[in-house]
Design a protein that fits this description.
It is a single chain. With 179 residues, the chain is of the alpha+beta class. Helices cover 20% and strands 45% of the residues. The chain is built from three helices and ten strands, in the order βββββββαβββαα. It is elongated. The chain starts with a strand and ends with a helix.
Length: 179
Amino acid sequence: MDELKRIDRKLVHKGRVIDFYQDTMLLPNGNTVEWDLIDHVGASCVVAVREDGKLLMVRQYRNPLERLTLEVPAGKLNSKDEDPAVCAERELAEETGFVCENIEYLTTIYTTVAFCNEKIGVYLARGLKDRHPQHLDEDEFVNVEAYELDELKKMIFEGKIQDSKTVVGILMYASKYHL
């Protein structure tokens, strides 16, 4: 494939969570096109497993879907330079009130490669200790729930859990530790 080249990048909107750019691209055939780009600082999520084997999940309202979702704890990096493992531990503590003795890297995912560079580090947390209370952001309202792995896998395969980071995290944990 011949090389594509960016000719220009314009900031269309600077947001609190994302920035929206429009890139002018030179195509291999000589044509130019405008491509949208959502720039995201990055994030981490954490599959948190209690001593009894249950996984901690958070239920919260998601505006783009206009409904509550069940997800693994997650949040955005404070900067592009932040260690994603540090972010995962912070989000675990803030959203659930738990800290962990062990954090293990599972994988990294890109959520929507066609127009967004959001990258999420996926981690496994074990040796959980309840330090309560939650330390939520001003606009966060999160309920913490605990589920058996088989319950969560069933919800994934029934289409009840559709969040990509949650699906990947749970299935990575299941395939690595519960063959």
